[in-house]
Amino acid sequence: MNLLIYKTQSELLEDIAAYIINIANKSIDEQGSFNFVLTGGNSPKALYEMLATTYKDQIDWKKVYFFFGDERNVMPNHDSYNGLMAKQAILDPLNIAADHIFYVDTTLAPEKAAIEYNKAIVKHFDGADLVFDLILLGMGDDAHTASLFPGTDILNNHNVEIDSVWVEKLSTYRISFTAPLINKAKNIAFLVFGDSKAEAVKHVIETDKKNSKLYPAQLIKPIDGKVTWFLDDAAAKLLDN
To answer: b vs e for 121-149, b when ≥16 Cβ sit within 10 Å of the residue's Cβ?
Structure first.
């Protein structure tokens, strides 16, 4: 695990942008493409906008394929649909081709949406192992990541796949990568800001006695890849080391 802590969010965003660019160009050089899994929520929006403007000329975007690590069970035109935020912040500004974007079809029932998303990803990898080049993750103040929430059934899913999950605390379904699918990635990056995340960060990174049912982000342990945490001072303030 690589732990990076920044005094300001702007410094953090500049560094994670450089990190993404490096991985993207390495992947394109080695295999001709870059399979990039986006995270939702508010934290990554500024990052996506930076990539689409300041750094737009530093990646061959025609060779990038975009995926979503989780999605909310709302219509694609809803403000809280992760795909809509990404569409507005990075995908449309970069004129990404439709066949390079893998949205979750939330016009379907959650279970069916998960099945169809899984099929689309398997088809894209065309018989190869489902190993993404980079998965971006956020983390909530309850230590959930993607839509792996405390106490939910998806935490018991040991399959490398997409699954639907009922989140009782939100009274809604989500569609999400399972932890085993995330853990196959070559690179995983957590992007975490703010005081409200400090206790969760402490539990996930430093607690000796693990309890992934209570702190699901503890499940993220790449098999052969690397995980990097990008934190601001506020999110890291309770860490001992």
So the answer is: beebeeeeebebbbbbbbbbebbbbbbbb
